[in-house]
From TrEMBL:
Protein transport in keyword set: no
Cofactor entry: heme b
Pfam families assigned to the protein according to its UniProt record, in alphabetical order: Peroxidase_2
Molecular-function annotations in GO: metal ion binding; peroxidase activity
Naturally occurring in which organism (per UniProt): Neohortaea acidophila
Gene3D superfamilies in the cross-refs: Chloroperoxidase-like
Residues in Heme haloperoxidase family profile domain copies: 94-334
PROSITE patterns linked to this entry: HEME_HALOPEROXIDASE (PS51405)
Region (Disordered): 31-53
Key words of the record: Heme, Iron, Metal-binding, Oxidoreductase, Peroxidase
Stated family: Belongs to the chloroperoxidase family.
Family matches, as InterPro entries: Chloroperoxidase (IPR000028), Chloroperoxidase-like_sf (IPR036851)
Keyword Transmembrane helix annotated: no
The name this protein goes by in its record: Secreted chloroperoxidase
Amino acid sequence: MKSVIFTLIGGAAAFPFVANAPGVNSPWSGSGLHRLRARQQPGGEGAGSEANCPYNPNHVPAAPFNPKYPYNNAKNGQMGNQKGGYLVPAKGDTAHQFVAPNPKTDIRGPCPGLNAAANHNFLAHDGVTTFDELVDAQQNVYNVGYDLALLLATLGLTLTDGDVVTEKLSIGCDATSRTSFNPALTGSEPGLDGHDKFEADSSLTRNDFFLDNGNDFSFNGTLFGYMASVAESTGGGNFDFNAMSAYRKQRYDQSRAENGNFYFGPLALLLYGASSFVYELMPTAGGPADLATVSSFFGTSKNSAGQWVFNNNEQIPPNWYARVEPYSNNDVTTQILEQYLKYPVLFGGNTGKAGGSFDAVSFGAIQNGTISSSISATQTSCLLYQLATGSVPSYLNGVLTPSVKALSFVLEKLTSNPTFKNLGCPIPLT
Ligand code: HEM
Ligand SMILES: *[C@@H]1O[C@H](CO)[C@@H](O)[C@H](O)[C@H]1NC(C)=O
Ligand SMILES: *[C@@H]1O[C@H](CO)[C@@H](O)[C@H](O)[C@H]1NC(C)=O
Protein backbone atom coordinates (compact mmCIF):
# COMPACT_ATOMS: atom_id res chain seq x y z
CA MET A 1 0.00 0.00 0.00
CA LYS A 2 1.33 3.45 -0.93
CA SER A 3 1.03 5.91 1.85
CA VAL A 4 1.42 9.52 2.81
CA ILE A 5 4.97 10.75 2.55
CA PHE A 6 6.59 12.78 5.29
CA THR A 7 6.64 16.52 4.80
CA LEU A 8 9.95 18.33 4.77
CA ILE A 9 9.71 20.44 7.89
CA GLY A 10 11.38 20.83 11.24
CA GLY A 11 13.48 17.92 12.36
CA ALA A 12 12.85 16.01 9.18
CA ALA A 13 14.56 18.73 7.16
CA ALA A 14 17.86 17.83 8.76
CA PHE A 15 17.59 14.35 7.28
CA PRO A 16 16.43 14.58 3.67
CA PHE A 17 16.45 10.79 3.40
CA VAL A 18 13.40 10.80 5.64
CA ALA A 19 11.31 12.69 3.13
CA ASN A 20 12.48 10.45 0.32
CA ALA A 21 11.93 7.19 2.13
CA PRO A 22 9.03 5.34 0.56
CA GLY A 23 6.21 4.21 2.76
CA VAL A 24 6.82 6.49 5.72
CA ASN A 25 3.64 7.55 7.48
CA SER A 26 3.23 10.37 9.84
CA PRO A 27 1.17 9.15 12.79
CA TRP A 28 -1.05 12.20 12.32
CA SER A 29 -1.76 11.54 8.70
CA GLY A 30 -4.88 9.55 9.46
CA SER A 31 -3.78 6.95 6.95
CA GLY A 32 -5.53 4.32 8.99
CA LEU A 33 -2.64 1.92 8.86
CA HIS A 34 -2.50 1.39 12.58
CA ARG A 35 -3.25 -2.16 13.39
CA LEU A 36 -3.63 -4.08 16.56
CA ARG A 37 -0.24 -5.32 17.51
CA ALA A 38 0.37 -8.62 19.20
CA ARG A 39 0.87 -8.28 22.91
CA GLN A 40 4.58 -8.85 23.15
CA GLN A 41 5.04 -9.97 26.71
CA PRO A 42 6.13 -13.30 28.05
CA GLY A 43 3.09 -15.07 29.33
CA GLY A 44 1.79 -18.53 30.10
CA GLU A 45 4.41 -21.13 29.33
CA GLY A 46 6.53 -19.21 26.81
CA ALA A 47 10.17 -18.13 26.83
CA GLY A 48 10.75 -15.75 29.72
CA SER A 49 7.58 -16.84 31.55
CA GLU A 50 7.49 -17.65 35.23
CA ALA A 51 6.89 -21.32 34.38
CA ASN A 52 10.29 -21.48 32.67
CA CYS A 53 12.16 -19.23 35.07
CA PRO A 54 14.99 -20.60 37.26
CA TYR A 55 13.98 -20.84 40.90
CA ASN A 56 16.21 -20.54 43.93
CA PRO A 57 14.43 -21.41 47.19
CA ASN A 58 17.35 -20.04 49.24
CA HIS A 59 17.82 -16.51 48.00
CA VAL A 60 21.13 -14.97 49.08
CA PRO A 61 21.60 -11.21 48.52
CA ALA A 62 24.70 -9.71 46.87
CA ALA A 63 27.94 -10.13 48.83
CA PRO A 64 27.78 -7.53 51.63
CA PHE A 65 29.95 -4.41 51.59
CA ASN A 66 33.39 -5.15 53.01
CA PRO A 67 35.51 -2.14 54.06
CA LYS A 68 38.63 -4.19 53.24
CA TYR A 69 37.66 -4.09 49.55
CA PRO A 70 35.70 -0.85 49.15
CA TYR A 71 35.84 -0.39 45.32
CA ASN A 72 33.90 2.87 44.86
CA ASN A 73 32.71 2.79 48.46
CA ALA A 74 29.11 2.58 47.20
CA LYS A 75 26.66 0.98 49.63
CA ASN A 76 22.96 1.07 50.57
CA GLY A 77 22.05 2.85 47.34
CA GLN A 78 24.09 5.91 48.29
CA MET A 79 26.66 7.84 46.30
CA GLY A 80 30.15 6.38 46.42
CA ASN A 81 33.53 8.01 45.78
CA GLN A 82 32.88 8.49 42.03
CA LYS A 83 36.51 7.54 41.44
CA GLY A 84 37.51 4.43 39.51
CA GLY A 85 40.84 3.04 38.39
CA TYR A 86 40.83 0.12 40.87
CA LEU A 87 41.19 -3.61 40.16
CA VAL A 88 37.90 -5.63 40.00
CA PRO A 89 37.66 -8.04 41.72
CA ALA A 90 40.30 -6.84 44.20
CA LYS A 91 43.16 -9.18 45.08
CA GLY A 92 42.07 -11.44 47.93
CA ASP A 93 38.38 -10.54 47.64
CA THR A 94 37.06 -14.10 47.42
CA ALA A 95 33.44 -12.93 47.82
CA HIS A 96 33.57 -11.35 44.34
CA GLN A 97 35.32 -14.09 42.39
CA PHE A 98 33.49 -15.35 39.32
CA VAL A 99 31.00 -18.19 39.88
CA ALA A 100 29.16 -19.45 36.78
CA PRO A 101 25.36 -19.31 37.07
CA ASN A 102 23.43 -22.50 37.67
CA PRO A 103 20.71 -22.66 34.98
CA LYS A 104 18.32 -24.32 37.47
CA THR A 105 18.52 -21.61 40.12
CA ASP A 106 20.10 -18.47 38.65
CA ILE A 107 18.24 -16.02 36.42
CA ARG A 108 20.21 -14.28 33.69
CA GLY A 109 18.79 -12.00 31.01
CA PRO A 110 19.44 -9.66 28.10
CA CYS A 111 22.04 -7.47 29.87
CA PRO A 112 25.63 -8.76 29.87
CA GLY A 113 26.66 -5.95 32.25
CA LEU A 114 24.23 -7.06 34.96
CA ASN A 115 24.71 -10.78 34.24
CA ALA A 116 28.46 -10.41 34.80
CA ALA A 117 27.83 -8.37 37.98
CA ALA A 118 25.61 -11.19 39.29
CA ASN A 119 28.20 -13.83 38.35
CA HIS A 120 30.66 -11.89 40.54
CA ASN A 121 28.14 -11.51 43.39
CA PHE A 122 27.91 -7.72 43.07
CA LEU A 123 24.21 -8.48 42.52
CA ALA A 124 22.40 -11.43 44.12
CA HIS A 125 23.77 -14.49 42.35
CA ASP A 126 20.29 -15.84 41.64
CA GLY A 127 19.40 -12.72 39.63
CA VAL A 128 16.58 -11.48 41.87
CA THR A 129 18.07 -8.14 42.78
CA THR A 130 17.10 -4.87 44.44
CA PHE A 131 17.25 -1.17 43.63
CA ASP A 132 20.11 -0.62 46.09
CA GLU A 133 22.12 -3.58 44.76
CA LEU A 134 21.76 -2.18 41.24
CA VAL A 135 22.87 1.31 42.27
CA ASP A 136 25.84 -0.01 44.28
CA ALA A 137 27.00 -2.59 41.71
CA GLN A 138 26.97 -0.15 38.79
CA GLN A 139 29.20 2.20 40.78
CA ASN A 140 31.47 -0.40 42.34
CA VAL A 141 32.06 -2.55 39.26
CA TYR A 142 31.86 -0.12 36.34
CA ASN A 143 32.20 3.34 37.92
CA VAL A 144 28.88 4.39 36.50
CA GLY A 145 28.19 7.90 37.86
CA TYR A 146 25.69 8.09 40.70
CA ASP A 147 23.20 10.06 38.61
CA LEU A 148 23.17 7.50 35.81
CA ALA A 149 23.21 4.56 38.22
CA LEU A 150 20.07 5.94 39.89
CA LEU A 151 18.41 6.61 36.55
CA LEU A 152 19.07 3.15 35.10
CA ALA A 153 17.99 1.38 38.27
CA THR A 154 14.80 3.48 38.34
CA LEU A 155 14.08 2.74 34.68
CA GLY A 156 14.78 -0.93 35.33
CA LEU A 157 12.23 -1.06 38.12
CA THR A 158 9.51 1.10 36.65
CA LEU A 159 9.70 0.19 32.96
CA THR A 160 9.92 -3.54 33.37
CA ASP A 161 7.39 -3.86 36.14
CA GLY A 162 9.88 -4.61 38.81
CA ASP A 163 8.19 -4.00 42.14
CA VAL A 164 8.30 -0.44 43.47
CA VAL A 165 7.13 -1.58 46.90
CA THR A 166 9.68 -4.33 47.53
CA GLU A 167 12.13 -2.53 45.16
CA LYS A 168 12.95 -5.95 43.69
CA LEU A 169 13.63 -6.82 40.08
CA SER A 170 14.46 -9.95 38.12
CA ILE A 171 17.40 -9.37 35.75
CA GLY A 172 15.78 -11.85 33.34
CA CYS A 173 12.56 -13.83 33.29
CA ASP A 174 9.34 -13.41 35.19
CA ALA A 175 9.92 -14.11 38.91
CA THR A 176 6.76 -12.46 40.21
CA SER A 177 6.41 -14.79 43.19
CA ARG A 178 9.74 -13.46 44.44
CA THR A 179 9.67 -9.80 43.36
CA SER A 180 6.05 -8.82 44.04
CA PHE A 181 4.73 -7.67 47.42
CA ASN A 182 1.37 -9.08 46.42
CA PRO A 183 0.96 -10.83 43.04
CA ALA A 184 -2.83 -10.47 43.20
CA LEU A 185 -2.46 -6.69 43.31
CA THR A 186 0.59 -6.17 41.10
CA GLY A 187 -0.14 -8.70 38.38
CA SER A 188 2.85 -10.26 36.68
CA GLU A 189 6.24 -8.56 36.82
CA PRO A 190 8.07 -9.75 33.69
CA GLY A 191 11.59 -8.65 34.69
CA LEU A 192 14.17 -7.38 32.22
CA ASP A 193 13.09 -9.92 29.58
CA GLY A 194 9.71 -8.13 29.27
CA HIS A 195 9.51 -6.81 25.74
CA ASP A 196 9.10 -3.27 24.36
CA LYS A 197 9.89 -1.75 27.68
CA PHE A 198 13.58 -1.63 28.54
CA GLU A 199 14.21 -4.60 26.23
CA ALA A 200 13.65 -3.72 22.58
CA ASP A 201 14.07 -4.91 19.00
CA SER A 202 17.40 -4.79 17.15
CA SER A 203 19.57 -5.61 20.20
CA LEU A 204 23.25 -6.14 19.58
CA THR A 205 23.33 -9.90 20.25
CA ARG A 206 19.74 -10.89 21.05
CA ASN A 207 16.99 -11.89 18.61
CA ASP A 208 13.88 -9.75 18.24
CA PHE A 209 11.06 -10.96 20.46
CA PHE A 210 8.74 -11.55 17.54
CA LEU A 211 11.30 -13.41 15.42
CA ASP A 212 12.08 -16.05 18.03
CA ASN A 213 8.84 -16.91 19.82
CA GLY A 214 9.42 -14.44 22.60
CA ASN A 215 13.05 -15.28 23.24
CA ASP A 216 14.54 -11.79 23.27
CA PHE A 217 17.20 -12.53 25.89
CA SER A 218 19.40 -15.47 24.84
CA PHE A 219 22.82 -14.79 23.36
CA ASN A 220 23.03 -15.27 19.58
CA GLY A 221 26.56 -16.07 18.38
CA THR A 222 25.79 -15.23 14.75
CA LEU A 223 24.92 -11.69 15.78
CA PHE A 224 28.04 -11.46 17.94
CA GLY A 225 30.03 -12.55 14.88
CA TYR A 226 28.45 -9.75 12.83
CA MET A 227 29.41 -7.27 15.55
CA ALA A 228 32.98 -8.60 15.63
CA SER A 229 33.20 -8.25 11.82
CA VAL A 230 32.15 -4.62 12.02
CA ALA A 231 34.72 -4.08 14.79
CA GLU A 232 37.27 -5.61 12.42
CA SER A 233 36.30 -3.56 9.37
CA THR A 234 35.43 -0.27 11.08
CA GLY A 235 37.22 -0.16 14.43
CA GLY A 236 40.57 -1.75 13.53
CA GLY A 237 39.54 -4.76 15.63
CA ASN A 238 38.05 -2.70 18.45
CA PHE A 239 34.38 -2.31 19.41
CA ASP A 240 34.81 1.46 19.47
CA PHE A 241 32.45 4.37 18.81
CA ASN A 242 32.72 4.04 15.01
CA ALA A 243 32.16 0.29 15.03
CA MET A 244 29.28 0.35 17.50
CA SER A 245 27.45 3.18 15.71
CA ALA A 246 27.79 1.34 12.41
CA TYR A 247 26.69 -1.97 13.90
CA ARG A 248 23.70 -0.36 15.68
CA LYS A 249 22.57 0.95 12.27
CA GLN A 250 23.12 -2.46 10.70
CA ARG A 251 20.91 -4.11 13.32
CA TYR A 252 18.22 -1.47 12.80
CA ASP A 253 18.24 -2.11 9.05
CA GLN A 254 18.14 -5.87 9.60
CA SER A 255 15.16 -5.73 11.97
CA ARG A 256 13.29 -3.29 9.79
CA ALA A 257 13.78 -5.59 6.81
CA GLU A 258 12.98 -8.85 8.61
CA ASN A 259 10.54 -8.16 11.43
CA GLY A 260 7.01 -7.11 10.48
CA ASN A 261 6.43 -6.15 14.11
CA PHE A 262 9.70 -4.22 14.39
CA TYR A 263 9.23 -1.40 16.86
CA PHE A 264 11.94 1.17 17.54
CA GLY A 265 10.24 3.60 19.90
CA PRO A 266 11.63 6.21 22.29
CA LEU A 267 12.84 3.45 24.62
CA ALA A 268 15.26 2.43 21.86
CA LEU A 269 17.33 5.37 23.06
CA LEU A 270 18.41 2.90 25.73
CA LEU A 271 19.86 0.64 23.03
CA TYR A 272 22.26 3.41 22.02
CA GLY A 273 23.12 3.73 25.69
CA ALA A 274 23.82 0.00 25.91
CA SER A 275 26.02 0.05 22.82
CA SER A 276 28.03 2.92 24.34
CA PHE A 277 28.58 0.73 27.42
CA VAL A 278 30.57 -1.65 25.21
CA TYR A 279 33.22 1.00 24.49
CA GLU A 280 32.84 3.13 27.64
CA LEU A 281 32.31 0.67 30.50
CA MET A 282 33.70 -2.68 29.34
CA PRO A 283 37.31 -1.69 28.56
CA THR A 284 39.84 -1.85 31.36
CA ALA A 285 40.75 1.70 32.53
CA GLY A 286 42.29 3.52 29.58
CA GLY A 287 42.32 0.37 27.43
CA PRO A 288 40.55 -0.57 24.20
CA ALA A 289 37.23 -2.40 23.80
CA ASP A 290 39.05 -5.29 22.13
CA LEU A 291 37.74 -8.72 21.27
CA ALA A 292 39.20 -10.42 24.36
CA THR A 293 37.50 -7.91 26.67
CA VAL A 294 34.13 -7.81 24.96
CA SER A 295 33.86 -11.58 24.44
CA SER A 296 34.61 -12.10 28.13
CA PHE A 297 31.71 -9.86 29.24
CA PHE A 298 29.38 -11.42 26.67
CA GLY A 299 30.38 -14.93 27.79
CA THR A 300 31.32 -16.20 24.36
CA SER A 301 34.14 -18.10 22.73
CA LYS A 302 34.78 -19.57 19.30
CA ASN A 303 34.18 -23.28 18.82
CA SER A 304 36.29 -25.53 16.58
CA ALA A 305 34.03 -24.71 13.63
CA GLY A 306 34.82 -21.01 14.10
CA GLN A 307 31.38 -20.08 15.41
CA TRP A 308 30.81 -17.85 18.42
CA VAL A 309 28.97 -19.82 21.11
CA PHE A 310 27.73 -18.91 24.57
CA ASN A 311 29.93 -20.40 27.29
CA ASN A 312 27.84 -19.30 30.32
CA ASN A 313 30.86 -17.37 31.64
CA GLU A 314 29.83 -13.71 31.40
CA GLN A 315 32.84 -12.51 33.26
CA ILE A 316 35.00 -9.53 34.15
CA PRO A 317 38.25 -10.15 32.22
CA PRO A 318 41.44 -10.94 34.16
CA ASN A 319 43.45 -7.99 35.50
CA TRP A 320 40.61 -5.54 34.79
CA TYR A 321 40.44 -2.00 36.18
CA ALA A 322 37.24 0.10 36.35
CA ARG A 323 37.21 3.24 34.20
CA VAL A 324 38.74 6.24 35.97
CA GLU A 325 36.12 8.99 35.48
CA PRO A 326 32.50 8.22 36.40
CA TYR A 327 30.22 7.66 33.40
CA SER A 328 27.49 10.23 33.98
CA ASN A 329 24.02 10.97 32.67
CA ASN A 330 25.47 13.68 30.43
CA ASP A 331 28.17 11.31 29.14
CA VAL A 332 25.68 8.66 28.12
CA THR A 333 23.20 11.06 26.49
CA THR A 334 26.08 12.59 24.53
CA GLN A 335 27.10 9.14 23.27
CA ILE A 336 23.48 8.25 22.46
CA LEU A 337 23.13 11.35 20.30
CA GLU A 338 26.52 11.04 18.62
CA GLN A 339 25.84 7.47 17.58
CA TYR A 340 22.35 8.37 16.40
CA LEU A 341 23.44 11.48 14.48
CA LYS A 342 26.20 9.54 12.75
CA TYR A 343 23.57 7.23 11.22
CA PRO A 344 20.17 8.83 11.74
CA VAL A 345 17.22 6.43 11.53
CA LEU A 346 13.50 6.81 12.05
CA PHE A 347 11.93 6.04 15.40
CA GLY A 348 8.67 4.20 14.96
CA GLY A 349 7.60 0.83 13.71
CA ASN A 350 6.79 -1.42 10.82
CA THR A 351 3.07 -1.64 10.33
CA GLY A 352 2.96 -5.38 9.91
CA LYS A 353 4.94 -6.21 6.81
CA ALA A 354 8.71 -6.56 7.06
CA GLY A 355 10.37 -3.86 4.98
CA GLY A 356 6.95 -2.37 4.23
CA SER A 357 5.39 0.84 5.42
CA PHE A 358 6.49 2.44 8.65
CA ASP A 359 4.86 4.72 11.21
CA ALA A 360 6.97 7.40 12.87
CA VAL A 361 6.57 8.44 16.52
CA SER A 362 7.11 11.65 18.47
CA PHE A 363 8.21 11.95 22.09
CA GLY A 364 10.28 14.68 23.73
CA ALA A 365 13.29 15.39 21.55
CA ILE A 366 12.09 12.82 19.01
CA GLN A 367 9.82 14.63 16.56
CA ASN A 368 8.21 12.81 13.66
CA GLY A 369 10.64 9.96 14.13
CA THR A 370 13.87 11.94 14.17
CA ILE A 371 16.09 13.78 16.61
CA SER A 372 17.37 17.10 15.32
CA SER A 373 21.11 17.72 15.44
CA SER A 374 20.27 21.08 17.02
CA ILE A 375 18.91 19.43 20.18
CA SER A 376 19.39 21.72 23.19
CA ALA A 377 21.58 20.95 26.18
CA THR A 378 18.53 20.66 28.45
CA GLN A 379 16.78 18.30 26.08
CA THR A 380 19.96 16.22 26.01
CA SER A 381 20.17 16.01 29.79
CA CYS A 382 16.49 15.13 30.06
CA LEU A 383 16.50 12.55 27.27
CA LEU A 384 16.49 9.45 29.48
CA TYR A 385 14.88 11.10 32.46
CA GLN A 386 11.74 11.72 30.40
CA LEU A 387 11.44 8.02 29.66
CA ALA A 388 10.83 7.49 33.37
CA THR A 389 8.31 10.29 33.74
CA GLY A 390 6.46 10.64 30.45
CA SER A 391 3.80 8.64 28.61
CA VAL A 392 5.99 6.81 26.12
CA PRO A 393 4.56 5.64 22.78
CA SER A 394 4.89 1.90 23.19
CA TYR A 395 3.15 0.03 20.42
CA LEU A 396 2.08 2.03 17.41
CA ASN A 397 -1.38 2.50 18.78
CA GLY A 398 -0.59 2.52 22.47
CA VAL A 399 1.34 4.32 25.15
CA LEU A 400 3.12 3.18 28.25
CA THR A 401 1.92 5.53 30.97
CA PRO A 402 3.66 5.30 34.31
CA SER A 403 1.26 4.58 37.15
CA VAL A 404 0.90 7.02 40.03
CA LYS A 405 2.80 4.47 42.09
CA ALA A 406 5.66 4.42 39.57
CA LEU A 407 5.75 8.22 39.32
CA SER A 408 5.99 8.67 43.07
CA PHE A 409 8.80 6.14 43.02
CA VAL A 410 10.59 8.22 40.37
CA LEU A 411 9.99 11.39 42.37
CA GLU A 412 11.42 9.78 45.47
CA LYS A 413 14.46 8.31 43.71
CA LEU A 414 15.33 10.97 41.16
CA THR A 415 13.59 14.29 41.46
CA SER A 416 14.43 14.69 45.12
CA ASN A 417 18.07 14.05 44.22
CA PRO A 418 20.19 17.18 43.77
CA THR A 419 21.85 15.81 40.62
CA PHE A 420 18.50 15.76 38.83
CA LYS A 421 16.81 18.67 40.58
CA ASN A 422 18.94 21.21 38.76
CA LEU A 423 18.54 19.84 35.25
CA GLY A 424 15.26 21.64 34.64
CA CYS A 425 13.53 18.58 33.22
CA PRO A 426 9.72 18.56 33.32
CA ILE A 427 8.62 17.25 36.72
CA PRO A 428 5.87 14.66 36.69
CA LEU A 429 2.68 15.42 38.59
CA THR A 430 1.43 12.64 40.80
C1 HEM B 1 20.32 -0.94 36.41
C2 HEM B 1 21.14 -0.94 35.40
C3 HEM B 1 20.88 -1.64 34.09
C4 HEM B 1 19.71 -2.16 33.59
C5 HEM B 1 18.32 -2.14 34.23
C6 HEM B 1 20.04 -2.76 32.30
C7 HEM B 1 19.13 -3.39 31.49
C8 HEM B 1 19.40 -3.84 30.20
C9 HEM B 1 18.42 -4.39 29.30
C10 HEM B 1 16.94 -4.60 29.61
C11 HEM B 1 19.06 -4.67 28.15
C12 HEM B 1 18.44 -5.24 26.88
C13 HEM B 1 18.23 -4.15 25.89
C14 HEM B 1 17.95 -4.72 24.54
O1 HEM B 1 16.81 -5.02 24.23
O2 HEM B 1 18.90 -4.90 23.79
C15 HEM B 1 20.44 -4.31 28.31
C16 HEM B 1 21.39 -4.46 27.35
C17 HEM B 1 22.74 -4.21 27.54
N1 HEM B 1 23.33 -3.77 28.69
FE1 HEM B 1 22.39 -3.30 30.40
N2 HEM B 1 21.37 -2.60 32.06
C18 HEM B 1 21.93 -1.94 33.11
C19 HEM B 1 23.27 -1.62 33.27
C20 HEM B 1 24.28 -2.01 32.42
C21 HEM B 1 25.69 -1.84 32.70
C22 HEM B 1 26.27 -1.21 33.96
C23 HEM B 1 26.36 -2.32 31.63
C24 HEM B 1 27.87 -2.34 31.54
C25 HEM B 1 28.59 -3.06 30.77
C26 HEM B 1 25.37 -2.80 30.66
C27 HEM B 1 25.65 -3.34 29.40
C28 HEM B 1 24.69 -3.69 28.47
C29 HEM B 1 24.97 -4.06 27.10
C30 HEM B 1 26.33 -4.09 26.41
C31 HEM B 1 23.75 -4.39 26.50
C32 HEM B 1 23.48 -4.84 25.05
C33 HEM B 1 23.41 -6.33 24.95
C34 HEM B 1 22.95 -6.79 23.60
O3 HEM B 1 22.17 -6.08 22.97
O4 HEM B 1 23.39 -7.83 23.16
N3 HEM B 1 24.14 -2.61 31.19
N4 HEM B 1 20.63 -3.81 29.59
C1 LIG C 1 5.55 16.55 12.24
O1 LIG C 1 4.57 16.21 11.27
C2 LIG C 1 3.35 16.93 11.40
C3 LIG C 1 2.34 16.38 10.41
O2 LIG C 1 2.93 16.16 9.16
C4 LIG C 1 3.63 18.44 11.23
O3 LIG C 1 2.44 19.17 11.42
C5 LIG C 1 4.68 18.87 12.26
O4 LIG C 1 5.03 20.22 12.05
C6 LIG C 1 5.93 18.02 12.16
N1 LIG C 1 6.85 18.39 13.21
C7 LIG C 1 8.17 18.46 13.03
C8 LIG C 1 8.98 18.89 14.20
O5 LIG C 1 8.71 18.15 11.98
C1 LIG D 1 20.82 -15.77 15.22
O1 LIG D 1 20.71 -14.63 14.39
C2 LIG D 1 20.71 -14.91 13.01
C3 LIG D 1 20.78 -13.59 12.27
O2 LIG D 1 19.72 -12.74 12.65
C4 LIG D 1 19.49 -15.74 12.67
O3 LIG D 1 19.46 -16.06 11.29
C5 LIG D 1 19.52 -17.04 13.48
O4 LIG D 1 18.33 -17.76 13.29
C6 LIG D 1 19.68 -16.73 14.97
N1 LIG D 1 19.99 -17.98 15.67
C7 LIG D 1 19.25 -18.45 16.64
C8 LIG D 1 19.69 -19.74 17.25
O5 LIG D 1 18.23 -17.92 17.04
